Amino acid sequence: MRDGVRMDLDATIATLLSRQDGVISRQQATYWGMSDHQVDSRVQRREWVRLLPGVFRSAAHDDTAASRTRAAFYWVGKRGALSGSSAAWWWKVIEAPPARVEMTIPHRVQLRAQPGVQLRRRNLHSSDLVHHRGLRITSKPLTVLLTALEVGSSVLDRALQNGTPLQGLRATVDRNSGITGSPAMRKLLAQASDGAAATSERLFIKIMRGSGICGWKANTRLRVQGRDYEADFVFATARLIVEIDGWAWHHQPDRFQQDRDKQNALTLAGWIVLRFTWHDLTERPEWVAAQVGQAVGR
């Protein structure tokens, strides 16, 4: 190979590695002009480290969660997509990457599991597969729902707060009624869709009674600064108001503004206002009780 051609090839490969967290597949390398012999030579010289069949990392690049994620994707190829907690991390819905990279592949695809990679077999609708940051990945709504089943409802709560549309979540559940976990996704979404006002109030009351906290009234009207407001729970002696925010509350701009106006008015009138979410009530009731207990002086 002429020196000029070699330099061009080396520069192309170096640029590709830089863009891909130091990871490259044999298919990519040969597409850009390397021979199989050249690929094998780099491995033998320990310039490249084999991560998975046909996938390598440059020894000049650190072993990172991003490099392992890309390696799993390049190994599976166009047959699959990043999914579950791995997709949630790639979407930046969760902060910490999972220990193993999850890839979803169609039922017809025959692949043996590899160390560090978890294979899920699902036939997904094309609407639930997108490209994000260079990888084929489950759409954000499906990613959020699948991850919420795996790690807890806080993922769904956070996604709603950050703008994931409730309508898109509903459509996703409807499209995936046949996949494993779909009944649980539908149940989770039903909770999110209405915030279950009556249910959330019952949960809060159960938490208060279980903690021995009393002195509250539910759905009480207050007149503050010439306006009438309804509070979810009022502890009159402690001048404490507790408001419960259902998940769908995050997607009602008018209600959001009204609640902010109400909270400001109540605070200026000398009330303490605590807000709890459905996730708080279901996932950390002890914390809710401790917060209220501290506010009422127990």
TrEMBL record:
<protein>
    <submittedName>
        <fullName>DUF559 domain-containing protein</fullName>
    </submittedName>
</protein>
<dbReference type="InterPro" id="IPR011335">
    <property type="entry name" value="Restrct_endonuc-II-like"/>
</dbReference>
<dbReference type="InterPro" id="IPR007569">
    <property type="entry name" value="DUF559"/>
</dbReference>
<feature type="domain" description="DUF559">
    <location>
        <begin position="197"/>
        <end position="294"/>
    </location>
</feature>
<dbReference type="Pfam" id="PF04480">
    <property type="entry name" value="DUF559"/>
</dbReference>
